Amino acid sequence: MNDVNDNRSLCSFCSLLCEPLDGHADFGETFCSRRNRELDRLRSAPPLPALSVSEVEKGFEFAGARTRWQKAQRRLVTGRIRSVETARSAVRLAQCYGATIDLWESEATFESIASMQRSGSYAVSLTEARDLSTLIIVIGSDAMLEDYPRLPIALSKAERIPVLLLGDWSDRACGAWVEAGFDVLAISTEIEHLPRSLAQSFVAAQSMEWDSRVGDWLQRSRYTSVVWSTQHLGFLHADLWIDSMQQWIATRNETHRCGAMVWGGLEGACQQVCTWLTGFPGRIQFRDGHAEYDPYRHSASRWLERTRSLGRESVDSIAIWIDESSDDLPNEVIESGIPMIVVGPKAPHSRWETLHWFPSQRSGFGANADFFRGDQVVQVRGCDPQGILVELPSVATWLRRLTAP
User: Fold this and answer.
1) Burial class (CB in 10 A: 0-12, 13-18, 19+), 172
2) Among candidates 284, 280, 294, 241, which has minimal Cα distance to 108?
3) Which of 69, 135, 175, 353 is 20 to 30 A from 2, alpha carbon to alpha carbon?
């Protein structure tokens, strides 16, 4: 169930969407390591000029870019879409012009989707995992805390409970969980084989008593939450791994309450909006206004591959790269050489001439926007009070202008 809150101060540099400590507007320098890294990147970038929509259209040849988009025979809408407003505009743009739409690097998301479509899901929210769990199992590595540094704090509560870290965790990462108030046990293991190992241990425990600390935690836990991030699993066919984990969770629910908190990034907003508007979570080719869903064919990377293989015919193709991050364009996109319209706050370093860039505000940083938390349960509206205020159009505004006849 979505919960749209009033405008509030929040940090949108990751899908935890944290608020300032103790209700103060200032997050502080020690609030989050990822936040500090992102702020450093933003501050080191050349400042954007304060321009109106009409000034940007004139100076950046908007009319020519829109004409090129309208005349193209093959169109792709992709990029790093994070806010609800931008996702709505992107879907409508693709639908209006019969384009393919897919987020960049959406493979991990669709592995979770494929598993859910086949097997369903025993899902819990962040709030449930924090407030009800008597044991939390976290599967992953330090990379999870690089992307979501405040995850241990977000899951902590006044009561001290055990956390079992499975995967590849350093002493420093374990320390972050200890500092958040957990009893921590870390076990180095190959994540890929973990569902089978857990299933075998569970079967063995039914014929004999648990004789380990891990077994004691599992046996005593009244409510176990299993946490992982699909994008951090790092191996092929993760959807089958998720199937197996969900099966283990289902088996455990026969005797103990257990659920999965599958954490995702801010790109989940685009999948949500696509589902609202089309009935499908993305990877759509619009034909005559109707959505053709094919998660294997209509990915952004496959669209680029097919278009490059066309040779000279690729000049009749064009892509729109929508970016609500401060990251650079991927090399795969740059090296494609396909005509490109870039809409976002950061000027692209292009290696080809057929590129148009329309500068915009960064959603959620100095400009209000709606985001979905990583568990896809709560929708929050707000912005970062320390945002760099620049009088520029929003990303959604540019997409609406491109959609206009």
Assistant:
1) exposed
2) 241
3) 135
